[in-house]
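Model it.
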Amino acid sequence: MPMSSSWFCLHSSENETDITHATLSLDSRGLAYGDGFFTTMGVIDGQILWLDYHHQRLISHQKALQLDVDSHSLNTALIIHAQRLQQGVLKLIVVRAAQDVHGYGYTSNASGSACDIWLKSSAMMVKTDEQLCLPDGRLTPIQPVNRAICLSAQIACLPPPLAGLKSLNRLDTVLASAELQRIKSHLLPSDASHAPSQPNIGEGLLRDMSGCWVEGTMSNVFYQLAGAPVTNPHSLESKNTIDTTQGDSNYLMTGQWYTPSLTQSGVAGVMRQVIIDALSNTAYPVIIRPLQDDDLPHLTRLFFCNALRGIMPMANLTLLNDSVVTMA
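Modeled.
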């Protein structure tokens, strides 16, 4: 649970000499148009998890949105705030500065690329009780096994270069997350259909407007299919327990993993790229492959992931027709 949080202005286009007096205007382009992006970073022992990947996101997003960000100075500031925080979460928001032109447009000169940068520092516990060793030797948290459910809400298909960005335009995910919360609220422990020993619903699977299943409400998704190569079918001790004690990446190293393409929808998450890179030199590199309706009954493994929670394995997936696919 959060213990405290506060916002800092790291850069202001209007108050460059005294950012302590910077304010967020109701005319902010981030508020009016979602003209900007954000990233959320976990901090443990004063260190930002996957800082190199967050830095690459910063560079790719500022290029895609034509924003002028001093990525080196910003990186230094993030490291300083992480050391002060020690344990918790940093949320960075980059917004295009106010423009002289009216409406959606922005000028083609330097002022059009100027931006305001805000950082929220929240002290909280980042759960790392269980760690999984990736094939490249780095560690990532792995959460207890939960259940997943297909949601009826859909996310938008976007043109390049917007697809894959963690932009401030997130209304489709807001509505999808609300649907997931409504489902969770109806599954109280007293409900006879929800046995106490059964895993909780941890995430919802989302499809885009083309009908392909793309990601979760707060995460990316990886999956395995029946008939795909498997090197050790017994690496899972049971449906609700994953062996993470051997430090040899059994869970990730067993069989062929797939993840949906994000070329037209979804968010290219930091943890998604970490996993793709970690498996790139193994016997089974991750394959980018669409996840379609016909694939769902043939799923044998499924996990979601993000930079804060790491890997979130699922025991089963409830489909839109209420049938349940159980993972091997």
